[in-house]
C-alpha cells in the first residue's frame, strides 16, 4: 500500500471511529430494551424519532390550525388569543360580488385569489404543453439524449431565490432582454413595472424553473410505451399525427394527468421565485395566495395571524380536492397498468 | 460539394432530414440557450464593475478600465483615448474632471495639462474581472456568516434526515406490527401538507418550543421528510429477510441488524436521499424567512433576498453572492444529476 492510500484509509477510519463507537455504545441499552419489550418494542424505538418530529411539526400544527383560525389578536400563542368563532372566515368571504375585489371586505385576499386563479390556469397550460413537446422530442432516437435531458433539468435544482434574482437581473432596465430588444431596434423597457409583463414574467420564470421535472415524468411514460405498437403502425403506413393521437396520447394519459394535477397543486402554492422576482408588484398584480398568507401572518403592519390561518385553511381545502383528484387519477392509472 | 451535403444530412436508416428533425434540433438548441443562458449571463455580469453594470447597452464580456501611474501622482490614473482638436488620437490620463471638461496629461510628458471635452474621449478598456465583487462581501457584509449558517443547516438537516428516515423505513419494511399500514398512510398522506397551509400554527409551535430565532428551528421541522421514508422503505423491501434472520441466529441485536446490515445495503437509496436533502435544505426559503429575524442567523437565501430587497440594490455584490449560492447546486448537477433523475423517474416525487 502506498503512503497516500494508507493515509486515506487512516483518516477514513479516524473519521468513522466515533460514529462506530457511538453505535456500539447505543447497542448496550438497546439490547436491554429488546429483551424487555421484544421486537414490537424495537419497532416502536425505530419509529419514534421520525414520528415524534413528524407529529410535533406537521400533525400538531395541522390540528391547531383549525383552532387558530377561530381566534383573533396579534399574539402567536394560542392561549393568548381570544375566541371569535367563524368571524375570520366571515371576514374573508364577505363580498358584494366575488368577481369584483373592490366590493370585498378583505379585498387583498380576493385580489390574491383572482391572481392565483389566472396564474394557475395559464401556468399549468403552458407548463404541460412545453413539457410535453420537450418529452416528445427527447423520446426520439438521437445523439446524446441524456445530455439533452440534463439541459432541461438544470433550472429545477436552482434555488427559487437564485432563479428570481437571475431573472430580475435579466429583466431590469440595463438587462439582457433590453440588450436584445435594443439590438433588434426597439426601445428598452422596464418590464417588471408593467402589470402585463410582470405577470408574463412570473408565469414564464416558474415554467422555466420547473418544466424539467414534469418533462422527466412524461419521458418515463413515453419510454414505457411498447415499441412494437409503433412498429405495427409503421407497417400499416399510419400517418405520424394519427400515431400520436391514437397510440402515444392514450397510453401516456395516466402520466399526463399526474403531471397536470401535480402542476396544479404546485401552482396554487406559488411563492418563492415570484416573490423574489416581483415582490408581488407592480401594485398587487402578482400577489399570490401564499404571499398573502405570509404577509398577513407575519410581515405587514396589519398583522393578523388568525386571518392568515383561515386563509391557509381555505387554500388547504382546494389542495385537498386536488389531491383527491390526484389519488383518483393515480388509481385509474394503476388499474390500467394491471390490465395490460 | 453536394456529396458533403448528402453526408452531413444523412441519418441513420439512410433517410434524409425530415422537417420534424429540424424542429427538434431547433427546440433543443433553443432549450440549451434558454436553460443555461441566464446562468451564464449571471456569472459574466458578476465580474463587472458597478460602473459597467449601469451601462446600457450592456457588454457581453466584463471589462476593466486601464490605469497607469504617472510621475508626480500617487494614485494610478485612468487612461482615456482622446480625440485631439488636430484630428489625431492620443492616450491620456485623467487628473480631474470639472463639469464636462476633463484635465488630462500625457503619461510620457506629465507636466503639460490638456483640457478635453468629455464628449471627445473614451476610456481605454480591456477584458478583466472585477474579483473584488467576490472578496468584498466576505469582508464588509455578513456573507461568510450566512454561508456558515447555510452549510450548518444543510449538513445537520441531512444527517438527521438520513438517520431518522432510515430508522422509520427499517421499522416499516422489516417488522410486522399493528398499525403499520396506518402509519405508512399517515406519512404518505402528509406529503400533501404543504408548508404554506400550516405556516402560522407551525410558527407558534416552534415558538412554544423555544426554537424561534435559532438554526435548530429551521432544521427540525424539515427533517422528517415523507419522501425520504417512502424512498428508503421501497428500497429496504428488496433486502431479503433471510439475511436478517441469519444475523439473528448469530445473536445480533436488532440495532446491530439495522446498523451493520440494512444500512450498508441501503447505501444507494441513502445516497439519493442525501442528494435530495442537500438540495432541498440549501434552497429552502420561506421557512427560514419566517423563523429567523436576527440578521446574524440568516441563511444565504434569506440574506440574498434581504440585500436584493433594499432600496439601493448593490447589484455587483448581489450577483457575485448569487453565483456563490449557486455553486453547490451546480456541483450536484454536474456530478450527481443522474441519481436525481433516476430518483424522480423511480418514485415520481421531488
TrEMBL record, chain B:
<keyword id="KW-0472">Membrane</keyword>
<dbReference type="InterPro" id="IPR035906">
    <property type="entry name" value="MetI-like_sf"/>
</dbReference>
<feature type="transmembrane region" description="Helical">
    <location>
        <begin position="315"/>
        <end position="336"/>
    </location>
</feature>
<keyword id="KW-0813">Transport</keyword>
<keyword id="KW-1133">Transmembrane helix</keyword>
<feature type="domain" description="ABC transmembrane type-1">
    <location>
        <begin position="147"/>
        <end position="336"/>
    </location>
</feature>
<dbReference type="Pfam" id="PF00528">
    <property type="entry name" value="BPD_transp_1"/>
</dbReference>
<comment type="similarity">
    <text>Belongs to the binding-protein-dependent transport system permease family.</text>
</comment>
<keyword id="KW-1003">Cell membrane</keyword>
<feature type="transmembrane region" description="Helical">
    <location>
        <begin position="184"/>
        <end position="203"/>
    </location>
</feature>
<protein>
    <submittedName>
        <fullName>Carbohydrate ABC transporter permease</fullName>
    </submittedName>
</protein>
<keyword id="KW-0812">Transmembrane</keyword>
<feature type="transmembrane region" description="Helical">
    <location>
        <begin position="151"/>
        <end position="172"/>
    </location>
</feature>
<dbReference type="InterPro" id="IPR000515">
    <property type="entry name" value="MetI-like"/>
</dbReference>
<dbReference type="GO" id="GO:0005886">
    <property type="term" value="C:plasma membrane"/>
</dbReference>
<feature type="transmembrane region" description="Helical">
    <location>
        <begin position="21"/>
        <end position="43"/>
    </location>
</feature>
<feature type="transmembrane region" description="Helical">
    <location>
        <begin position="257"/>
        <end position="280"/>
    </location>
</feature>
<dbReference type="GO" id="GO:0055085">
    <property type="term" value="P:transmembrane transport"/>
</dbReference>
<feature type="transmembrane region" description="Helical">
    <location>
        <begin position="215"/>
        <end position="236"/>
    </location>
</feature>
Amino acid at each position: 500500500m502506498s503512503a497516500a492510500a494508507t493515509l486515506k484509509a487512516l483518516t477514513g477510519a479516524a473519521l468513522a471511529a466515533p460514529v462506530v463507537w457511538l453505535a456500539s455504545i447505543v447497542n448496550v441499552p438497546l439490547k436491554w430494551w429488546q429483551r424487555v419489550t421484544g421486537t414490537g418494542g424495537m419497532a416502536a424505538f425505530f419509529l419514534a424519532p421520525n414520528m415524534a418530529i413528524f407529529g410535533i411539526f406537521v400533525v400538531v400544527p395541522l390540528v391547531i390550525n383549525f383552532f387558530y383560525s377561530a381566534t383573533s389578536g396579534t399574539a402567536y400563542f394560542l392561549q393568548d388569543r381570544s375566541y371569535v368563532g367563524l368571524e375570520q372566515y366571515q371576514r374573508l368571504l364577505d363580498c358584494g360580488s366575488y368577481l369584483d375585489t373592490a366590493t370585498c371586505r378583505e379585498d387583498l385576499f380576493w385580489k390574491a385569489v383572482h391572481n392565483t386563479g389566472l396564474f394557475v390556469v395559464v401556468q399549468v397550460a403552458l407548463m404541460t404543453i412545453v413539457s410535453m413537446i420537450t418529452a416528445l422530442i427527447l423520446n426520439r432516437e438521437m445523439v446524446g439524449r441524456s445530455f439533452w435531458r440534463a439541459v432541461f433539468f438544470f433550472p429545477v435544482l436552482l434555488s427559487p431565490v437564485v432563479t428570481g434574482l437571475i431573472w430580475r437581473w435579466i429583466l431590469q432596465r440595463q438587462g439582457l432582454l433590453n440588450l436584445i430588444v435594443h439590438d433588434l431596434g426597439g426601445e428598452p423597457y422596464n418590464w417588471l413595472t408593467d402589470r402585463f409583463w410582470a405577470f408574463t414574467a412570473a408565469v414564464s420564470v416558474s415554467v422555466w424553473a420547473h418544466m424539467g421535472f414534469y418533462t422527466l415524468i412524461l419521458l418515463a411514460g413515453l419510454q414505457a410505451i411498447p415499441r412494437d405498437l409503433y412498429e405495427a403502425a409503421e407497417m400499416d403506413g399510419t400517418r405520424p399525427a394519427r400515431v400520436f393521437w391514437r397510440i402515444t396520447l392514450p397510453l401516456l394519459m395516466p402520466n399526463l394527468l399526474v403531471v397536470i394535477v401535480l402542476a396544479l397543486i404546485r401552482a396554487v402554492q406559488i411563492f418563492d421565485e415570484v416573490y423574489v422576482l416581483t415582490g408581488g408588484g407592480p401594485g398587487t398584480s402578482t400577489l399570490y395566495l401564499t404571499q398573502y398568507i405570509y404577509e398577513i401572518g407575519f410581515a405587514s403592519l396589519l398583522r393578523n395571524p388568525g386571518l392568515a390561518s383561515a386563509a391557509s385553511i381555505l387554500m388547504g381545502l382546494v389542495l385537498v380536492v386536488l389531491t383527491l383528484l390526484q389519488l383518483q387519477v393515480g388509481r385509474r392509472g394503476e388499474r390500467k397498468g394491471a390490465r395490460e | 460539394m453536394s456529396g458533403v451535403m448528402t453526408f452531413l444530412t444523412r441519418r441513420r436508416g439512410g433517410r434524409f432530414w425530415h422537417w420534424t428533425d429540424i424542429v427538434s434540433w431547433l427546440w433543443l438548441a433553443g432549450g440549451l440557450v434558454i436553460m443555461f443562458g441566464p446562468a451564464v449571463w449571471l456569472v459574466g455580469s458578476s465580474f463587472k464593475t458597478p460602473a459597467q453594470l449601469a451601462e446600457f447597452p450592456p457588454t457581453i464580456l466584463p471589462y476593466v478600465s486601464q490605469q497607469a501611474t504617472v510621475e508626480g501622482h500617487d494614485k494610478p490614473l485612468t487612461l482615456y483615448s482622446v480625440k485631439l482638436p488636430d484630428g489625431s488620437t492620443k492616450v491620456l490620463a485623467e487628473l480631474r474632471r470639472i463639469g464636462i471638461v476633463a484635465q488630462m496629461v500625457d503619461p510620457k510628458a506629465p507636466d503639460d495639462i490638456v483640457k478635453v471635452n468629455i464628449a471627445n474621449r473614451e476610456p481605454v478598456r480591456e477584458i478583466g474581472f472585477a474579483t473584488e465583487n467576490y472578496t468584498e462581501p466576505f469582508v464588509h457584509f455578513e456573507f461568510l456568516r450566512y454561508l456558515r449558517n447555510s452549510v450548518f443547516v444543510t449538513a445537520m438537516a441531512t444527517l438527521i434526515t438520513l438517520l431518522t428516515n432510515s430508522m422509520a423505513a427499517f421499522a416499516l419494511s422489516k417488522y410486522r406490527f399493528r398499525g403499520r399500514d396506518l402509519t405508512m398512510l399517515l406519512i404518505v398522506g402528509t406529503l400533501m401538507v404543504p408548508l404554506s397551509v400550516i405556516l402560522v400554527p407551525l410558527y407558534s409551535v416552534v415558538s412554544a418550543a423555544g426554537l424561534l430565532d435559532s438554526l435548530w428551528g429551521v432544521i427540525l421541522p424539515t427533517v422528517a421528510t415523507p419522501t425520504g421514508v417512502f424512498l428508503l422503505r421501497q428500497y429496504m423491501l428488496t433486502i431479503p429477510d433471510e439475511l436478517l434472520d441469519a444475523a439473528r441466529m448469530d445473536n445480533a441485536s436488532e440495532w446491530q441488524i439495522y446498523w451493520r446490515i440494512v444500512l450498508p445495503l441501503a447505501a444507494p437509496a441513502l445516497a439519493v436521499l442525501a442528494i435530495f436533502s442537500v438540495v432541498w435544505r440549501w434552497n429552502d426559503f420561506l421557512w427560514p424567512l419566517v423563523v429567523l429575524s436576527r440578521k446574524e442567523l440568516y441563511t444565504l437565501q434569506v440574506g440574498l433576498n434581504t440585500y436584493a430587497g433594499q432600496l439601493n440594490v448593490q447589484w455587483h455584490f448581489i450577483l457575485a453572492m448569487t453565483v456563490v449560492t449557486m455553486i453547490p447546486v451546480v456541483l450536484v448537477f454536474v456530478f450527481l444529476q443522474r441519481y436525481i433523475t433516476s430518483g424522480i423517474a423511480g418514485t415520481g416525487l421531488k
